[in-house]
Amino acid sequence: MLKQLHITNNGTFIDGDKASDITLKDIDIKRKELTFRIAVLEDAAHVGGLTIFGKGFGNYNQDLVFKLYYS
Q: What does DSSP say about strands 17-20 and 11-14: parallel, antiparallel, or unpaired?
């Protein structure tokens, strides 16, 4: 599945559904380097792993894309 993550002044959203209360005020958007982590926590409802596909694999023939829009 192709997913879109948006971090706004109202929270963090994945495909329009609120995933977190983390807002733009909570992250240092002006840093030169950002770290993006994806994880499955040990106490998650569906423990067992996570697969991320890139170009040449999966349903979308593209590498991971990160675009930052900020004004």
A: antiparallel
pLDDT score recorded for residue 13 = 94
Q: How far is it, in rounded angstroms, from Cα 63 to Cα 21? A: 28
Cα separation values, 46 from 19, 30, 36, Å: 16, 34, 21
Contact (CB, 8 A) for 28 and 35: no
**DSSP for 3-50?**
--EEEETTEEEETTEEEES--GGGS-TT-S---------TTSTT-S--
Share of the chain above pLDDT 70, in %: 97
